[in-house]
Amino acid sequence: MSDNISAFDSKEYDMQIRRTLPYYDELYQQVIELVKACNHNTLKWLDVGCGTGKMAEVVFKNMEVEKFTFCDCSSKMLAVAKERFPYSNTDFILCDIQEISYSNEYDVITAIQVNHYLQKEERKKAVQSCYQSLKENGIFISFENFAPFSDFGKKIYLNKWKEYQMKQGKTSLESNNHINRYNRDYFPITITEHLELFHNCGFRAAEILWVSNMQVGIWGIK
What we know:
Blueprint: H1 13-20, H2 24-37, E1 43-48, H3 54-62, E2 65-72, H4 75-84, E3 90-94, E4 106-112, H5 120-133, E5 134-145, H6 151-167, H7 172-179, H8 191-200, E6 205-212, E7 215-221
Parallel strand pairs: 1-2, 1-4, 2-3, 4-5
Antiparallel strand pairs: 5-7, 6-7
Helix pairs in contact: 6-7
């Protein structure tokens, strides 16, 4: 059993996620390019569902950060991140994304593969908490699995995803086990629903950053 909400134990997460998620590293590069395009200078950054700290790794290599806050509901994941980044400008909080209670604190908030584990009302509460925690003109960037618009599309995308995992060395059984988590362990919504959610939570603009296979990046400006 995993020691966090994802499919993988914290000790093997970084290795396993690349065998599972196409273009995993590209997601993070897209975040960096977007934040740079928004002309932010020194940043206060909150990464929700930080896992082992992949977002921080990319940020510290590419940007100047006044403060970077790691947030995760798994103490095991947070412990790994804390060991990796013992810097003076970092802090670590153990809580669920729905429980974040900052107000006008951060320039950037990221949630990479986090909110698709939530049900509809939980997801709305999570996005609202991120909106509340942003400064005016702050950016919220979320990458999630999304639901195709049709059953046919869903079948094709899931087959394609299975083939990717098998090419990365997973067995057919391992690949099927992960595919079968769809609508059982995580609950994707359509891209249209993603954009509507951002608008309904108060963001004055919501846009698509990146789409590939069954993953989408959405960003909003407060």
